Every structure is written in C-alpha cells, then in structure tokens.
Batch of 4 targets.
Target 1
Amino acid sequence: MARTPFIAGNWKMNGTKASGMELAKGIAKGAPKEGVEVGMAPPFVYLDAVSQAIGGTGVLLGAQDVYFEKSGAFTGEISCEMLKDVGVKFCLTGHSERRHVLMEPSSLVAKKAAAVYGSGMTLVHCVGEKLEERDAGKTLVVVQSQLEELGTDMADPERLVIAYEPVWAIGTGRNATDEQAQEVHAYIRGAMATRWNRDFADRVRIQYGGSMKPDNAKGLLNQPDVDGGLIGGASLKVDSFLAIVNAAV
Ligand code: PEP
C-alpha cells in the first residue's frame, strides 16, 4: 500500500513572529511539490500570519493543541472552529508534553481527538511510552491504551495520522533505532486493523517522532511502517527540516 509520507514540524513554544515568518516562507519555498506532504504547527499566536505566508503553496498549517468545546466560557482556550477559521488543516492531540508536562489526562486527550476529527480537520494523535514503561516491557500496552482514546467512528483513514513518539526520544537527541521504531509502528498498524479493519489500517499514516534529524531520517523513513515524521527541534531551521522532508521523497 503506497502511503504519501507526511512530515510535520512542531515548533512548540519557540520563535518570534519575525523568525516564524522567515521559517515558514523558507520551508514553503523549498518544499517539494509532490511525493511528500509537508506541514508546520506554529504557536497559536502566529497561526494567522503563517497561514497567510504559506497560503496557496500546498504546505499544510497545523495546530499544537485545541480545546474540545465549540465555544463559551473557557478562558484561554481555542476551539476547532477558530483554528479552521485561520486555515488550520491538522491538529495534534496527546503530545507527550501535553500528557506529561501539562498533565492532560487520557480522558481529556480523547475528547480533544474526537473534536478535531469531528471538525473535519486531520487528526495527528500522538502516542508513546516513557523510559520506565519501555524498561518494564510495557511499550505496547501503553501505546494500545493511547490508541483506544480514538473512537472507531473515525472512518476516514486520510484524516487520521498516528505519531509514535517514544517520550525518552523527544528532545533528548536519542532517537529510537530503525528496528525499535518499525516494531512499534507495525504493532500500531496491526492494532488498528483489529479495531477498524485491514484496509483502514493500511491507509493510515504512522509518523515517527523523537529526535529525528537529517542524519537519521533516511533509515527511519525507510522502514515499511514509518510514513513520515513529527519533528520538533530540527523543524526550527529551514535547512534541517527540508533535509528531512527530502529524505522522505
Ligand atoms: C516532538 O516534540 O514532537 C518531537 C519529536 O521533538 P524532537 O524532534 O525535538 O525530539
């Protein structure tokens, strides 16, 4: 099954409006027009400006987070409709920093995932184990339970992306080996075939995230069940991000 790789940058809480605009324009200018989907998720306050900078280029605008309610008294929060209003096409849920730094419980992650998918945006749902969970042999159990945050009424495999991001690899410079990534990606696809069906699972893209860099991207992206990357640190420079994008083509 040929799946178009999807490489997305997660800028996290970095940069200024000026640096973000420069980064966005540089990526949009250098990104290949076919063979790979490219996206970037800037901080909320820069979404509108980045949206205008990359409009019409084919590069997808993403959001790092969202709140599940449609509108109302939720101080500080942003809804799916607000994101769509400024051109957002995909939204992350369950990122390890939301789960383990901002202490989002699984029940909240599940509501956010349902809201993103229900809004018509593409859902990029992040899963991954902590180091102590890997060491205790619990990687697949953790990933399975995070996959179960998704409802099987999510019926369009083109709008569902799973990002496997081992927590111990995020921002640490220590990536999963090609074999470790492939093992978990194959498990995820199998688990999705069981919960949805084989055809659905074969169409869903599964990104790897966790210290993906230009020098390790090719090996990871060559794995049969690795369909792209969610990139943190290396997405903050045009050259390193585009090197990863080109490794996926
Ligand atoms: C991430 O935050 O999703 C990520 C993968 O970060 P990094 O590439 O910096 O490890």
Target 2
Amino acid sequence: MKQRLQKQFPKNFFWGGALAASQVEGAATADGKGLTTADALPHGVFGKVEIPPQGDYLKKIAVDFYHRYPEDLSLFAEMKLKMLRISISWARIFPNGDDETPNEKGLAFYDDLIETLRRKGIEVMVTLEHFEFPLHLVTHYGGWKNPKLIDLYMRFVKLLFKRYQGKVKYWLTFNEINVTLEAPFNGVGINRSLDQIDQTEMYQAIHHQLVASALAVKAGHEIDSNFMIGNMVAYSPYYPLTPKPEDVLEAIQENRKTFFFTDVQARGTYPAYMQRYFKDNGINLKITKAEQQLLQENTVDFISFSYYMSYCASANKEGLEKIRGNVISAVANPYLKKSDWGWQIDPVGLRIALNTLYDRYQKPLFIVENGIGANDDLLEVAGQKTVQDDYRIAYHKAHLQQAWEAIQDGVDLRGYTAWTPLDIVSNGVAEMKKRYGFIYVDRNNDGTGTLKRYKKKSFYWYRDVIESNGSALFAEDQSAN
Ligand code: BG6
C-alpha cells in the first residue's frame, strides 16, 4: 500500500502576520506623538512630499489600530497567529527624535500592545524603523545624511531593548533598507527626485543607516544575548529577459542593488562590486576604520525580506514593457500574470529567492511580508458580511507551497508573516481600496466608513493552514495519493 506522506512545516514554524505603525495606528498626533516622514507623504511614496501635511489624509486615522487593537488582537488570536510583526513609531516615543526624555504615553501604548500579544501566546517581532521617523529630524537635521541621527536612533533603540527585554526576542533594524535607492525621502528623508539626487549624499545616508543597524545589533546582544536581530530588505529577484550574456550580466547588476545591503549586514563588509560602482560614479563616502570594524563584528542573526514579485532585466533599454511594483519599475516578465495593481505574480520566484539568499549567507531566513493588494467586495453571505477572496487564498497558498519546497531544498526558513492580517492604508499609493487583509476594515478612499471589522474567507483559510501546520495547503494533493 502506498504510504501517505503528511506534508508539514517544521515544528515551531512562526505562522504570522505583519503590520506597520504608520499604516494601521492612525492617532497621528494623539498623546504627544510627533509627525513623521510617513505623515509627510500623505499621498504615498509616489505622491508629493508635504511638510507639514495639508488637510485630511487616510494615514491620520488609518484603521484606528491605536484605539481598536484589543479587538484586532482577539481576531488575530482567533486566526491562530503565532507571531505578529509590528513596528514601533519612533515619534510616539521621542516626538521630535532628539528629545531628552521619552513620551510615557507613547510607551504605555506599546507596553499594553506587547503585553496583550504575549497573554494571547503570540510571539512579537518588532521593526525598529518601518518607513517613518520623526519629521523634525528632516527639518532640523536634514535626515539620515546627518550622522547625528545614528546616536538619536540608538537612544530610541536602546530604550526599547531595555524596556521589552524578556518580552520581545525578534527585532528588525530597518524595514526594506534597500528601497532608499528608489524612494530616498521614504527611506532617508532626502527630498530629491532620483535624477537630481546627489549620489554621494544618498549613499552616505545609507551608510549611516548601515552603521546604525550594526550598532543596534551590538547593543541588543549586550543587553540580552537571547535577542535575535535581523535586517530586512525588499527582495524581488531579477531574471535575465533572455539568455543573451548582456542580459544575464544586467540581471546580476540589478540583483546586486539588493545584495549590497544584505552583503554589508550579513557578511560585514562593503562588497568589491560596490567599491567599483562608487569609483566609476565619483561617489566618495566617509567610512572610518572603526565603522568598518563595527560592521564586520556585528552582522545580523538572521535575514528577513518582503517578497511580492520578480522582475526581468535587459541590456536593451528601449521598447520593452515595463511594470511597476511597490517602488521599483522594471521590465515585465511575459510568462506571468498581474495583480489588480499590476504587480506580477510569481510563486516559484519565492523558492528562488529563498534558495538564493540561503546559498549566499547560510543564515536563518524569515519571510516578513508577502501578500496581494486587491479590490475586495464586501457582500452579505448567510446573513454575515464577508469577502469571497479566493484570489487572495490562491496567492498565499501558491507562495506557501513554494516556501515548503524551499525548506525541502534545505533552506532554514523560520517563519512567514503575511502582509497583512487586516486591511490597512497602502504605503505606495496611500489608499484603502488596495486591500491586503484577511480581515476587512470598513473604510474607503474618501475617508468614509464605520471602521468595523469583518472576517474574509481567507481568515478561515489561514486559520486552517496554521492549525494544520501547513498540511492544509496540500489537502487536495494528499487526498489524491
Ligand atoms: C512594502 C512595505 O514595501 O510593501 C509595506 O514594507 C507596504 O509598508 C507593502 O505596505 C505593500 O506595498 P503597498 O504600496 O501596496 O502598500
């Protein structure tokens, strides 16, 4: 008789969800919170920078997680989440970023949020900076090009490490640190378009974040040797559009725009290909010997990344179809379908991404964002309002199946925090209409809506996947065996 193999994920796999403060909390100036760079992008990464932001904008209230988190956390527990990735808004704790003393009301919010998660048995992962820092640090210091931000970030980070020691084990230093190359204001607070930016200034700001990240790893390990501190990049692998050697080389160069960051954070040195890039482009950075040593001695414990899509690379710059992803615009892949927002869907690309990162670094990996932004219809089914989001289920299912394959390939994958457990304001276009959640939030692009929460079909599906430790993903294949 043929033995039926139960396909499962490793024991203690972190099935989770991920959120970002500026996209969920709202309460933009409540209880002493200062405005942030995210508030200064009221229309999203692709919109105009407004300092200060004018009029109403969706992130001001977002989905009111600041006031509604007890209800949301109960729903997450009902979904059986084992991990929640949150971010802590720097400006809730230090409203201007350079304040001498922290804002206790801001801390009280995160104290209770973290405590409630722990009571519900949900492991917390904290992103220390998720696409927002106090706006005052842009207007008075010029953003991350100023090395003073390193000390100010460390004041914030050390406070959190000490306060949440024994409660939070998993930390990420900067969200999608590589995205500055495409969206400099969003990443480092330099308000210039890519064709006008001073490259030395931008890479110096990036260097300051890389130094801050290594300092956070060092301080974290000194405070608690059990801490697991990771980096976080947006990783969309590039494939050569054709086997033409020039296209293959182009794909290598494009992939290096991400590997530059992971190489510094996981291997501890600036790679030779970046030295060449700096030389060829007249980029002169101030990097001290002490900083080099710091980077070398304080590499991350694990690598985390967001995965939404892959791209193609071609040496030919004319006449090719281009697609835009979260911030990058690149050559389209003729073999792939697109989401409602034009992002190409490539589950096998996730297996490729996992294998590539693991082969390169041999460090534990976390997928900390993966999901699909779609137009959802709230309907009444058997007297209950819900969304029949089979497209979202199909997306996550296909990606998780490929993550399972990567684990069979030998990749040390520790967790998957889906983007997102509930609908939130999009980062790129600052819309509510672009929905990612397993829970629907009644809020519309024009700001109307009751903010009530409704479980989508995907809510129950994800709960079943978690409860079966992944085997529900393969239910059909297994019953066919
Ligand atoms: C990532 C960010 O870039 O992608 C998130 O870390 C963001 O903050 C997510 O929300 C999805 O992008 P978008 O633009 O659809 O919100």
Target 3
Amino acid sequence: MPKYVYSLSEGRLDLKDLLGGKGVNLAEMHHLGMPVPPSFTVTTEACNAYLAQGREPDELAQQFDEHVAALEAEFGKKLGDPEDPLLVSVRSGAKFSMPGMMETVLNIGLNDQSVQGLAKVTDKPRFAYDSYRRLLAMFGKTVLDIDGDAFEHVLDEKKHAKGTANDLDLDVEDLADIVGQFKKIIETESGAPFPQDPKQQLRDAMLAVFRSWNSERAVLYRRRERIPADLGTAVNVCAMVFGNLGMESGSGVAFTRDPATGAVGVYGDYLQNAQGEDVVAGIRNTLSLDDLSEIDKPAYDELIDIMERLESHYRDLCDIEFTVENEKLWMLQTRVGKRTAEAAFIIAVQLLDEGVIDEKEALARVTGDQLVALMFPHFDEKADREQIGKGMNASPGAATGQIAFDSQTAVELAAKGTPVILVRRETTPDDLSGMIAAEGVLTSRGGKTSHAAVVARGMGKTCVCGAEDLDIDVKRGVMRLRDGRTLRAGEIVSIDGTSGDVFLGEVAVVAPPVVRYFEGELDQDGIEADTLVHAVHRIMQIADRSARLDVRTNADTAEDAARARRFGAIGIGLCRTEHMFLGDRRAYVERLILAESTQERQSALDALMPLQKGDYLEIFEAMDGLPVTVRLLDPPLHEFLANLTDMSVRVALAEKEGGVSESDEKILAAIERLHEQNPMLGLRGVRLGLTIEGLYTMQTRAILEAVAERRQAGGDAKAEIMVPLVGAVQELEIMKEAILGVVHEVSEATGVDLSDVLIGTMIELPRAALTAGEIAEAAEFFSFGTNDLTQTTWGFSRDDVEASFFTDYLERGIFGVSPFESLDQGGVGRLVKIATKEGRESRPGLHVGVCGEHGGDPASVHFFHDAGLDYVSCSPFRVPVARLEAARAAVGAADETR
Ligand code: PEP
Ligand code: MG
C-alpha cells in the first residue's frame, strides 16, 4: 500500500523528492530538538496521483485521518472542538522552493461555534475574530478561487471608515462584522456557504494546494527556473501557533547571513501581533531582530542559538520563518536560503575560510550565471525608470544613450563622445562599425543567435534583441511604442541586456569591480580591499586547479584575443575571418566576384593576401605561445556585396537618367546570380573554398607567412587551420591537399618548419557527425560548430525561428530553453558524442573542442566535460564563466545551484 502521509519523526533529508523542502526541513529541525509545532506531510506522490486522476488516491483519506488523530492526541486538542479547537495550517512545499508561487491556508478549524470557543479559552475575542477573517479570506482565494480584491476591499473600507491604515486599530466588533461580510462574499461568489466542518475545510485546502502546482504563475516560475513540471508539491499540515495573540506574540523571517551582500551576522524582520503573511506583505513597518532582543530577550536568545545551529548543520546560509506565541518561540520553516550573486561568492569563501566546507563544495556553491551577473554593469534598481518594452536578454549589461537608427550616425555621435544605442529592426555585418561605436544594441527582430546577439556578445556589448512591441521604422527614423507614443533619433533610451528590459530616458548604472579584476587592473591590495573581488579571485584560483576541460576563446581581432587572454583563455578556438573582408576590403571582394579571368581573380586575391597576413600577425602576437585556430572563410560571398533591393533601385534610377555605370550593372548581375533562397544552406563554408579557386589557399598562405614571420622574429605562433561546413571527407581531403601544398611552399620559401601546423575541420552538419570516423582520417582536430549543428539537426533557421515561434514552443514546453542557447543534449548532443567517439576510434587522441555559442553556456559546458571534449571556446567575456563551469563540472557539481 503506498504511503502518502509521513509524520515529523518519519521525515529525513533524503526524502526531499517525496516530502518537499519544507517537509524534510521541518523534520530535520524536529530531530535537532528545535521547537517545531506538531505536524505531518502529505507526499508529492499523492499530489501527482491527484493531478493525474482528478481525484484523491484511495488510500489517502484513511492515512490522512490517522495523522490528524495523532496530531490531536499530541496537541491535546480536537479539530472542530467548539470549546477549545485545534487549528491547523496547510502549506505547500515542493522539492525546490518556489517563493510566493504556491498557496497557504492558515487557521483551519474555525467556524461560527469554535471562534467563540477560541475567544473564550484565550480570553482574546479580538484575536479569535482576526484569525477567523484570515481563514475566510485565504480559503476564499485559494480554495474557492475568489478574487482576493473582494476581501481586501471590505478590509480597506472598514479601516477607511475608522480613519486608520493600521489593521491593529480594528476592534472585535469591526472584525466580527468583516467576518460576516466575508462569509457573504463566499456564499455569493461560490454559490455555497463557507464549510463549517473543519475536516472538509482541511481536505479542501489540501486539494487546493495540490491544484496550485498547476496555477499559471507556478507554471511560469518553473519554466523560468527550469524546474521540472512533474515533481508535484507536498502539503504540510501543521498545528497553528499564533503570532497574533497580542504584543507578546509576533511573526518573523530571518537569515543567518545577509542574503544581499553575504555579510556575516543575522538579519531579519519581526512584526508584533501578526501572522506570517503580514511580514512579507509589508502592511506595517517591521522591526529588526535587534528590536526583538529588547522586546523579548529570551525568545531572541533562543532564536540566535537556533540560527547558529542551523547554519552549522546545513553548512550554509539558512532562511527561517518563526513565530513567537506568548513569548514562546516556534520554528515554522527553514531552508538553505536564496541569495544574490554577490552574496553567493562571498558566502562560499567565508564558509571555506571558516573550515565549514571544502574547495570542491565552494565551487558547487556558485554558478557561472552568477559570475555573469557580476561582470556586467547593471542599472540601479532603486533608480526611477519607465519601462517601454521587453525583448530577449541577448547580451548582459546596462547601456544608455541617444537613439541612432543607422551605423553612420552612431559612429559620428560616438566620435563626438555622445553615447548612443544603435536601434535597428535587425543588424547585418554592415552594422559592425555602428555596433562597435554604440554603447548597446536594440533590435525588434531576431533571437539569441541573431547577428546582433552573437556579435554583441562577442564584443561584451549590451544587447536586447527581438523587442517586438517596439515598432522600429529605420527609414522614417521613428520608434513607435505600444501606447502610440513615438521616439525619434537623438532621444534617450536605456537597455538592460540582463533582463531584456527597455527603459525611456537615462537610468543610473553601477560599475562592476569584478571586470576590472579580470582585466588585470587591480593589484593584490586592490583585490584584498574588495570583499567581492577577493571572493571571486579565490574561487577562480580553485577553479583553475580543478578543471579538466580547457577554455579557449572566439576572437577575430588582436584586441579581443588580448582581452580573452587576460580573462584566462588558453588559446583561440575560433578566429572567424569574415570581418577581414569588410570595410575598405569590400572593393577587393567585388573584384574577386566580378573577375572574368583567372588573372583578374588572382590579382584580387593577391591584393587581399597582405591585408589578411597583417591581421594574423597581430593575432598571433597577442596569443603568442598559445594555439590559434583560424577558420577559413565561411559565409556566402554575396553577403559582402550591396543589398539586392538597394542596388536594383540604384541601377533603375540611373537608367532613367540614362547613365548606368558598367560596374554597377555587373555588380547587380552578380548579386542576382549569387542570390540564394536559403543562403545558410547554400554556397558557403568549404563549398565556397572548393568553388572559388585560390580563395582558401590565399588565406592559408597569409596564415602561414604570418606564422613564419613571427617565428623568425623570435615569437611562438601556433596555428591550426580549420575548414568549415564539411559534410563529406572528400571535401576535406581535396582542401587538405591544397593546404599542404601551401605549407610546403611557404616552408621552402621561408626556411621555417611549419609541419606542426594542424589541419582540421568543424563538425557542424549531421552528416559530418555521422561520418566522423571517416572524416577523422583526414582531420587532425575537430571543432563542433554547434550553432550550425543545431540549425541543421532541427531544421531551424537560426536567424528566424527564435523571434517567430520559439516563445510558443517554450510556453508549450516543447523545450525549456532555446536549443541555440543551451545545447539540446538528447539530439545535437548525441551527435557530438557519436562524432567524438568515432573520430577518436579512427584517430586515437584526436583533439576535440566546441566553438559554437554553447561553449559559454553553463549547462552545455557540463555536457561537453562529460562527453570527454578537450576544450570549449567562447566569446572573451564568457571565458571566466566557462573556466568556472569547467571546474564545477569536474568536481561533479550540478549545472546550477538551487
Ligand atoms: C557554428 O556554426 O557553431 C560556428 C561556430 O560557426 P558560425 O556561427 O560562424 O556559423
Ligand atoms: Mg558554423
């Protein structure tokens, strides 16, 4: 027979799945001899059975009744006794705490008779009616789904009539009248009178708590926090102890350390003559724990003693709820408390220093996401601000500036020292200069792997993308808001890349010292002087000792490479070369595309070669001594030409005036010729290398000459040449032969031995993953391009889907998080595992990494560690996060703390 109900003495910490956090922690406090009111817990299994069958499981009622009887015996009072009733509370308690999401009903057991009994035995009629009106409101809201405003309204009216804002000014007559009105509301709204039978109240409340697992806000919270939907909630039934018995009673919440800053020392709020809900609701100003020590020293001393014991028992910051009933302290709840990112690092190091936890555990107590939060400037939450939109939190940070609808304006304004936000429907490679100049980027289209998002993240630039309620009309230079207002160029907006919020006007920001630390701007004294920086420093030292997975960076410029190196990258895992074909160099690309003879094409390539070589020289210098993986050109060539529509208009206008230039005509023809319906699946990657003769060999020559030159100058350049978008080993074999030819030539010409330069490939197509064994015969290393691998495995266009239907997919639970953001472990991840295994079977010791966006995502880093990869590569700003998560994965920490 399934066991659906557990007494306090049967509870154990390892039964958290079954009894929920609150249930096991109550039992734990009971075992520690702390004053916990008699209680029992109904399991999550009972909840799941109820939700699945739509009715209580058969065995529950009997077990429930037995435990109620035991509670009555222990407390010496009976539920519904009209003279001296036992009252109970019903609270939810899931495995993971979901603050404010689930329901509670207090004071169950009161009815028209027992309220009088309670008034008599306590000699406190005001207290009895105060408790009854609370029960009626909570029962009405939670069990009967009546709008809470109806009850609030009655209470407010009463206070208004008395000319007070304070509940405590209501006397027993007022409360009795309120009770009458509340009962009427219940009868009118639910069609039945408030149940007078306490057993029915109790059962109804339990079922309502079960149902609240699927309330809209609970569902939303779980999705956000990635809590599985099938856990269910336990229900805790607890004998009531009263904080609202008078001024010698009260309720409070407390933390064993400051959860906002991590500062040592208890911290809490206390409210006299109140029940727990009043403390969090903020209806009266609370007192501090110091005040409690003046009001009731023995209760305070006992509380402090219990808090110390709880902290050493749980070896972590705990938060608690407590009640003082007529000067007697009762513990209602404890749990390992939630804390800010700052507090998480500080507390982990404090506990390490105190010898409470070891290094491994310290790593488990912080997360990469928390580190991210510490690295980006953030808006001051206390500042005045008006939110005008919300998009995807594409790249964290806080940026404020004048709206610029085009890159040129952004560059011009920035040159004058004016901060700008580049506001576009979406961005293209042409916007790079504007993005660099801007403080932040705001788009109304595109998801987390859209151009704006990827580039901004790479640059550590704040970005909010896909803010669909902002209608951005770049042509007319206006941004229309939902309410019809319009903003024009030059007006100020603020964007929060950590939350996706967009604000009107300037919002004050706070600068992060943690970035100055990673930048190497702080000396030892500077590190010691800042508690947070010191804590981050300690954790990072431990992390680097513990990790197995290496962390490289995705960097295309010497500046990014240098920063990533300061941030702890041990090489470049992906140097994309496309930006090297933009700007002034476009003219050469045009010449390359329009070339009508081998000679013309070669001359365009010859012109590009020294420019590329210059780029590589700088990057090799910045990464001296560390490996640099350079990827040969990937995007389709037409991306470097003018836009089809713009060019068509230009040619049409010129035709009208009778003077189209020959080159414009040729360019338009080339654009039309190269136009593709699905450029992402078209002539790009190695296909381009095979089609445009001389392109990849030119790039190879530029790389190798730069390596040779650095080595001749005493440097230590280490290059790896990477061929993108290979689907068949034959493609790689042909390219490899051509590359080896250049290796031979450059070695001969320079006299520098280049035989150590590795030639490898990206694995970013399912076919490549499934034939990895063959591909590894030609490839000297693998790097998973998980952006394209996700796109091609799912058949999702990475530029389109996130902004179009992903919200719906997320809401329907098709996935909990975008597979472009966190690796789809069951699908794309499976391909990664297969390719790694089969690649290494055919080439033992094959070096394998990942360079897609997932390389900087905590959950994905854990997956890559487990899959046995050698390194992850991510944008410079994510390098510290990846270092931390690589270590956390190595010590077996979960990919998040809860
Ligand atoms: C990838 O596809 O994961 C990758 C790193 O290449 P890109 O994003 O440049 O296509
Ligand atoms: Mg790719």
Target 4
Amino acid sequence: MGLLATFLLPTVPAEASAPLRTHAASKGKFIGAALATSPLSNETAYRNIAATEFNQITAENAMKWDATEPSQNQFNFSGADAIVNFATQNNQQVHGHTLVWHQQTPGWVQGLGASAMRSAIQNHISQVVGRYADNPAVVSWDVVNEVFEENGSMRSSFWYNTLGQSYIADAFRAARAADPDARLCINDYNVEGINAKSTAMYNLVSSLRQQGVPVDCVGFQGHLAIQYGFPNDLQQNLERFAALGVQVRITELDIRMQMPRNSSKDATQATYYRNVINACLAVTACAGVTIWGFTDKHSWVPDTFGGEGAALIYDENYQQKPSYTAVHDALAAGTGGNDTTPPTTPGTPTSSDVTSNSATLSWSASTDSGGSGLAGYSVYREQGATDTLLGQSATASINLTGLTPNTQYQVYVRARDGAGNLSGNSPAATFTTSEGPVGGGGCTATGTVQTQWQNGYVVQPVTVTNTGTSAVNGWTVTFTLPSGHTLAGSWNASLTVSGQTVTARNAGYNGNLAPNASTTFGFQVNRPNGNTQTPSGYTCA
Ligand code: XIL
C-alpha cells in the first residue's frame, strides 16, 4: 500500500504543502489559534494540528479572570500554564487573553467599591502578567477587552460604572509595570470595518497614546458571518490604526454560516478567510491573524449564535475545509519564487449522482511543472456575465451541495498551484438538478436583519418560498430567539412564542403560494443592552 500510494502521488515540493506556520513565518507574520485546555489534554488530533499548523496561541478561556483568580487573591494557573507549556514545547508564542473584561469576571470583583476595585485590578494584573514576565513564550496581552458599546460610547460595564474611564489607562500602566517587554493590546469586536465603534476605538487609542499610556497594539476580533457580508474596508481600517503607530492584528477570526453547511457557503467562507489574510499581509503593521479555535468540533459559535456554525478551517473530524486551503494559499502566495507557470487546464467535468440539491463532479487532473505544486481546484457556475464560485476541492472531484432544485447548471473547473497561478478554464459541462420531493410542499425561509440598535433589531424581510412542485395553502416558519431576547411586534404573519422558540403562521392573505412563489413577513425584537446576537436558522414547513 505504502509503495503504491507513494508511486501514484504527484510529487509536491515541500514548500507548497508546508503548514500554515511555515508560510506565515516566511512573511514575517504569525498565524495563531485559540486553544481550549480540555481537548488539548484529551485529543491527539487536536494537539497535532495545533502544534504543526500554528506559531502563536491564545488561551480561549484559561487566562481569563474567572479561571486565574476565581476568588480574591486565590490564583489558579493550571490551565494557563498548560497552554504556555504546550507553546514552549512547540516553539510557539502566546498571546495573553484577557486581563480586564466585563465577562468571565467573578462576582466578587463586580461588587467591589471603587478603591477596592482599583486595587483588585492592580493585584490581578501584577500577579497574572508578572507570572509570565520572564517567560519568553508569552509576548503580548489583551489588557482591556470590549470597552465600547456598538454606537461607540463607553460600555456601561461594572468597570466603567464603578471607576469611570480611568480604569483603562490604569490597567495598561499596571501591565507595563508587570512586564515592560510585553506588547499591550486593546481588543474588540465589530471594529473590523470603519464604523462608529471602530472610530471610537481609534479616538481612544490616539488619545491614550498622546497621554503616554502604553497602548502598543489593537486587536480586531473578526467574528464574521457570511450572511452579513465582508467588511471591505478592513485593510483601510487597519491602515488608519497603523498610522497611529500601533501594531494591529486579527485576534479571534471565525466566519460562521447559517447551518446546514454546503459547498457554496464553504466557498464564500473561504473567500472571506482569504480576504482577511490578504488584508493583514498588505499592512506592514499587521502582526498576524489568530483563528478562534481551528476545528468545528470545538467552536463557541453553535453555542452562541442559534442555528449558525461551521465557522472554522477544519471540520468536526479534523479534515481541512476549503477555508483552510484559502488561508494556506494566501499565506503561501509568492513562495513559488519565480513560479509563473500555471497548472495545465483540467479536463471536462462529468456529473454523477445528481439530486434535487446536490451533484458530484469529477474531471481529469491537472499537472503542474512550475515547482510550487498543485494546490487544488475551484468549480464555477457560468451565469450570464458573472460566474459564481460553487466550491473548492483539493482533489479532482467535488460533491456540490446546496443546489437549487429543477435548475440547469453550466460549470467549469480551474486548477491553481501553490504560488497562486490559475490554469485556464476547463470546457464547460451542463447538468440539471431534479425536481424537489413531488407534491412535498417543500419551502424555505431566510431572514434578513434590516436594522439593529443597542437593545433591539428588526428582521425584515423573512422570505418564505415554496420550493415544492405544487401550490401550498398555508405555511409555518420556526426560529429560535437568543436567550434574553423578547418579541416586540410582527407583521404579515401571526407569531406565537414558547420559551425562546417562535412559530410564525401565514396571515389570511399570504398563505397561498404557487410553486416558486414567495411572500414575506417581519418582526421586531428587544434584547439586552450591548448584546449583539440576532436569530438565524429559519425552518419552513
Ligand atoms: C468565548 C469563548 O470562545 C467561549 O468558550 C466562552 O464560553 C466565552 O468566551 N470575545 C472574546 C473571547 O474576547 O474571549 C470570547 O471567547 C469570544 C468573544
């Protein structure tokens, strides 16, 4: 088996197939992952990938206040040490996360009066940062995390309500005193693009630095979702911060989707991952990108965003996804040296196993003689002037999912090598998906957040489409409200709530839908101040 396999495999130069960390290092960047202590001690596959692919590590939870100082002045570094030891063994750097945050901070801190709270911050920072000050693996800290509301005002956390804004400067000064060599960061979410919140961050960092407060770096969390679009001004935003003299970095990248996963969502996600890496590569002051976990098996997303998931670059079985390839190829771009030779054009794809929503394509493989090795294939759909990416594959076949029933697809394939050279387009092939379940009255529902504010949002429209082959005369859409959210009103459907589950039934006038016909309804929700969740995963019956 070994001999046969070796004989048949194309020879891929080590350089092109090297792990992410090798390519990142050659670009002078880090590629990081957040790690959780339990799989780190229990799962070999988790440990192997974490060690091999990444050169920077963030503790997903083990360095937070509730883990390190659960009761006053009683420190517990077992999880934090496990992370630091793992990093040391694998020649990785550690980014400390996080010192002062309004979440995962024990109740005893939250109830303190001003002067006791100030002392508690000083003591916590001096103990936690001090413990690793002489440890060469630990190079940086998130000193404060998520200090802003969405509209750019200071978050009304217990820190701010007890101490006013001064706690931020105090925390940075305490961290500098505890470890003069560590790079000190401020970190937040929804600041990737240029908006009210990121501008407030920009103004704060600028003013703190003018006052001599040691803010060295700004972290952009990067919890993105394919259904909300890509922040196309990410690079421009990073550049304006860099002009303040700070280092920038993407600290918690994950790109979620509404479940179920399919090949076209995977392809969009891969494009988003590539865009983030490319933005960081394009900005000298961007130190690197950390992915918030790496496997969908251990991701906070499904627990946090109802109906969403599959946000990372490995699937639940530790298999690399198209998003891995995207990160890899973006980091590897140019490492082909003077390889400007594209792979040969792949053969005409042939379709098989065509169903109402999926199809398998295979084609004869490309070869590459440019020296950077074949990296994979992209499958496109020809649609008038615009071609859409349907999926990506490392091998000469793909299982396309999430297709539309009863639809003709004209598709072609391109190969790409490790240096990013693209082959020509293969000849196109055509297949037609079958009709959905006959008379099954299938329907779909998708919701769009029209507007949102600090403590509420409007979802409009929720589009209900009859995907079956016969008319329906009544439909039901169910979805889950994130916890703490309450329905404030609705239109064009009647909504009933049980627990957090909402059932929407058609109104008298929009229950009849011919095949392929759509109708819409909408609703408004109240949510806790500062909570940014919205529902997803609408199920239609
Ligand atoms: C998340 C962790 O991933 C979860 O395991 C935990 O239950 C909650 O916190 N912003 C941050 C991170 O700065 O610390 C959060 O991590 C995700 C949002």
